[in-house]
Design a protein that fits this description.
Its main location: cytoplasm. This protein has about 625 residues and is of the alpha+beta class. It contains 19 helices and 35 strands. Helix content is about 35%, strand content about 30%. The longest helix has 21 residues. It is elongated and about 110 Å long. It starts with a strand and ends with a strand.
């Protein structure tokens, strides 16, 4: 499966991030008039970097100025690799260090250091610059990052940097495309004639054109009318891609940066989170119990308070602190999500961490609470199983032992819970995933029935085509069989449909169809070409094939050959008359005398009898079965 990644350009203001992005991609990411005039990035800038059959890479140009740190966090939160841009003539600056802290707290592991503007310094000075940068980066996520020398104006090192980015990401796992879709919104705008458009990086899952979605935490029901990836229309978007989605059912004024577009109700809306945090090394001020903070999570920026359970203040702390964040507004979060904490005034980055439990409850101050949070942090056996199955969708018992590090006896006991389902006697999955797929398949069939009301349904292979990219076939087979037993789905031959669906002629063609059938029935056994009846009734060519198949499948029309068809009542009456007035076997001549037909109709009718199992031909005779 093709893999999608987004990389970020980070670093101090005026160290050349935007120019480097433009040189790499041929796209100027500074779009705003103010950005052009001031020559600084204010909003996030995006551009396509590279694409082949295996991989697609996009670039986020992150604003470097301290005042635009909010946009910087929103941009970095969804990226897979960071290019830290450090100007050769200035080295690591205060803003660079803050960016490094933020990248570490957000869990960014892959990094490349681009030493820019190398033409501004003497060649013999470059080694000193590299040594200084290495020293400054000790203890950060960039401590072992490769250094690349570049100059955007002369194009020195640009190809080397691009090749290193591609090589690094080709070895990296992409984000989870199998889970439920989630896109934190970082931009909302309108397009004339199209309506509301949101843009963001797909954190996980995938989205299809026409898919029903929900804007959280507001709970607004919307539909993905159109999808674009880098200004090109696309039928779908995957985890790791930058996507713009045209939404129906919502106005621009109803949305804002920080809202999250999701495909599932399983995401948590919360104001209270149990968390594990770390703080920066050089805090300027004490962090006190219940002090106001700004929490940046995804693309949301929300005011709240920090609540400690084992202290009342801190300034220097190198380890992880278990505590709680209580927010003034609802956000969307799940276990493992990363966030940044900043002091609103005086402004500084305090630290960051990850969500242990997005649905935190009020706890008492004391070591007992810390002990409980430690257990939560590690995760209960059930939570570890759920986490492994959310990632892989289905796993054998042995694979679960490997993935969760649980003892077999403990694992077997946990798997007795109703939360887990044994699919095929070999692999386990989550009941929530089964229910999610049942809903997805139901919605797909419902939409298909609406678009093709004369068809029986979808064959299983076609129904599974999209889901197979995300889920194992064993899980999908289980969903269908379970749905058939529960009365949600039904099967007729190879076709799957919704239980209460019956194929039918669409209402707008019902009258013409009935008129055509009345004329066919009135002509009895001496009919014209069937095509003439369809044309005469004004049935459009776009639905002719579907209508013919429907009428034949329902027995309303019986084809004699490729040209002639009889009304089903006429065919059945002819069969009964011929059976009543012939013996166990008969010849063509006898049939002609009984029905009064010429060979033009007689031969196709008799062949139709053979094909439908009414008779069996032996030399020049027919024998009734």
């Amino acid at each position: 499966m093709k893999r999608y990644f987004t990389i970020g350009m980070a670093g101090h203001i005026d160290h050349g991030k935007t120019t480097l992005t433009k040189t790499l991609t041929n796209v100027d990411t500074d779009r705003l008039k103010e950005e052009k005039e001031r020559q600084i990035s204010i909003e996030l800038g995006f551009a396509p970097l590279y694409e082949d059959e295996e991989i697609q890479i996009s670039v986020v140009d992150v604003p470097g100025h301290e005042r635009f740190i909010r946009q910087m966090i929103a941009g970095v939160a969804g990226i897979d690799l960071v290019v830290l841009v450090v100007a050769a003539d200035e080295g690591v600056m205060p803003q660079t260090r803050e960016h490094l802290d933020i990248l570490g707290f957000l869990g960014i592991k892959n990094g490349i250091v681009a030493i820019s503007k190398i033409d501004r310094v003497e060649e013999e000075f470059i080694e000193l610059v590299k040594e200084d940068i290495r020293e400054e980066l000790q203890g950060t996520v960039f401590a072992e990052a490769p250094l690349v020398l570049v100059d955007s104006l002369s194009n020195k090192g640009i190809d080397d940097l691009k090749e290193l980015i591609i090589h690094t990401l080709k070895k990296q796992e992409m984000r989870d495309v199998k889970g439920a879709f989630r896109l934190p919104i970082d931009q909302v705008f309108t397009v004339k004639g199209q309506g509301t458009v949101v843009r963001g990086t797909v954190y996980e899952g995938r989205v299809e054109e026409g898919q029903a979605l929900t804007v959280m935490p507001k709970g607004l029901e919307v539909r993905a009318r159109q999808i674009q990836v880098h200004h090109k229309a696309s039928k779908e978007a995957f985890a790791g891609q930058r996507a713009a989605i045209n939404l129906s059912g919502v106005a621009k004024e109803d949305l804002e940066r920080g809202d999250v577009l999701v495909s599932s109700e399983h995401f948590n809306v919360t104001r209270t989170m149990d968390v594990a945090i770390r703080v920066v090394e050089d805090l300027d001020y004490m962090v006190k119990q219940r002090m106001p903070i700004k929490c940046h999570i995804g693309t949301a920026e929300v005011m709240g308070r920090i609540v400690f359970f084992d202290r009342n203040e801190l300034k220097e702390e190198t380890g992880e602190i278990l505590c709680q964040i209580r927010l003034d507004e609802e956000i969307v979060a799940k276990r493992g999500d990363r966030f940044i904490l900043r002091r609103p005034s005086p402004v500084e980055t305090l630290g960051g961490g990850w969500v242990i439990d997005p649905k935190g409850e009020k706890h008492r101050f004391g070591e007992r609470t810390i002990a409980e949070l430690e257990k939560k942090k590690v995760g209960t056996p059930g939570e570890r199983i759920v986490s492994a199955l959310m990632e892989s969708k289905s796993l054998s018992l042995d694979d679960l032992i490997t993935r969760t590090s649980l003892e077999r006896d403990i694992l077997v006991e946990e798997l007795k819970s109703d939360d887990f389902i044994l699919l095929n006697g070999k692999e386990y999955t989550l009941r929530a995933l089964v229910e999610l797929n049942e809903e997805d398949l139901y919605n797909r069939l419902r939409d298909y029935h609406t678009e093709f009301p004369m068809k029986q349904g979808l064959n299983k292979a076609e129904l599974f085509q999209q889901q197979m990219k995300l889920y194992p076939k064993a899980l999908l087979d289980y969903v269908i069989e379970r749905g058939i037993q529960a009365g949600t789905f039904k099967r007729k031959e190879q076709y799957i449909s919704i239980r209460d669906f019956q194929p039918h002629v669409p209402k707008n063609w019902k009258t013409r169809s009935n008129n055509m059938l009345d004329k066919l029935k009135a002509d009895g056994m001496k009919v014209n070409y069937f095509k003439d009846y369809l044309d005469g009734a004004g049935i459009p060519s776009s639905i002719v094939d579907d209508m013919k198949k429907f009428l034949v499948d329902e027995g309303i029309v019986v084809p004699l050959d490729e040209q002639y068809s009889w009304h089903g009542d006429v065919f059945n009456a002819a069969v009964e008359k011929l059976r009543a007035e012939t013996g166990q076997e008969f010849e063509v001549g006898e049939a002609k005398d009984v029905l009064g037909l010429s060979r033009k109709y007689m031969i196709p009718f008799l062949e139709a009898l053979d094909n439908r199992g009414f008779t069996r031909r032996i030399e020049n005779k027919r024998v009734w079965r």
